Amino acid sequence: MDLSLFLDNLWNARMSLLAGFGNTLLISLVAVILGSGLGVLVGLALSYGNLATRFVLRVYTDFLRGTPVFVLILACFYVLSVVGVDLSAFQAGVLALTLFCSSHVGEIIRGALAAIPKGQTEAAKSIGLTFGQTFASVLLPQALRQILPTWVNTATEIVKASTLLSIIGVVELLLATQQVISRTYLSLEFYFFAGFVYWLLNFLIEQAGRAVERRVSIPQ
């Protein structure tokens, strides 16, 4: 491997790679934020909704969790256009990752809430707290401590799944790397570089998650 040749081509391609990396960050961030917000609502409905609501959302979560992200992306981009919903490749990709994230977060929230003793909810009712106040002050803080490690894993999975958006033409880091390789023919070097960037990004997410976990943990 000619390191000087690789570094020279890397410098020349820096703007396109930075643009691809920026898209990867934006896609992942939006999908994780929207997916987590929707997932919280799904988890609450699975835990406290009526029978019909729980049934519908159980089908929703099981279907999405059991469907490959690749298929979700193609469905959001091609199937929705057939029924008259025209989304750009970027929008379709973000939608697919958001739905995927929400199904996992919803199940995480449901499991965390189920692990909290029911007596705590009953005690909150007995002192006059509304459900919203009970959730915000009693249930959510305890659930967060339980879900943080799994939620961080979900966030890293979304970052890795963002590479699949290249199949519908979203120029994220992987597709930007492939475009550079098509011009330079330095496939091994640039794929290794892209892999290192993805690893570094997920490593930083994991470290941030551990820092938050230590901050909210109950002292022994």
Order of helices and strands: HHHHHHHHH
CATH class: Mainly Alpha
What integer value in Å does the Rg equal? 21 Å
The percent range for helix content is over 70%
Q: Quick one: how many beta strands?
A: 0
**In CATH terms, what is the fold-level topology?**
MetI-like fold
Q: Which homologous superfamily in CATH is the superfamily?
A: MetI-like
Poorly predicted segments: none
Cα shape: elongated
Sketch the major β-sheet.
Answer: none
Please report the number of helical segments.
Answer: 9
- Overall pLDDT level: 90
What features would you describe in this structure?
The protein has 220 residues and is an all-alpha fold. It has a single domain (3-216), classed as MetI-like (MetI-like fold, Orthogonal Bundle), CATH 1.10.3720.10. Helices cover 83% and strands 0% of the residues. It contains 9 helices and no strands. Helix 6 (118-126) crosses helix 7 (131-161). The longest helix has 35 residues, at 14-48. The mean pLDDT is 90.
Topology:
Blueprint: H1 3-12, H2 14-48, H3 51-66, H4 69-82, H5 89-114, H6 118-126, H7 131-161, H8 173-184, H9 187-216
Helix pairs in contact: 2-3, 2-5, 2-7, 2-8, 3-5, 4-5, 5-7, 6-7, 7-9, 8-9
Task: Please describe the structure with a list of short key phrases separated by commas or semicolons.
220 residues, mainly alpha, MetI-like fold, elongated
Task: Quickly describe the structure.
With 220 residues, the protein is mainly α.
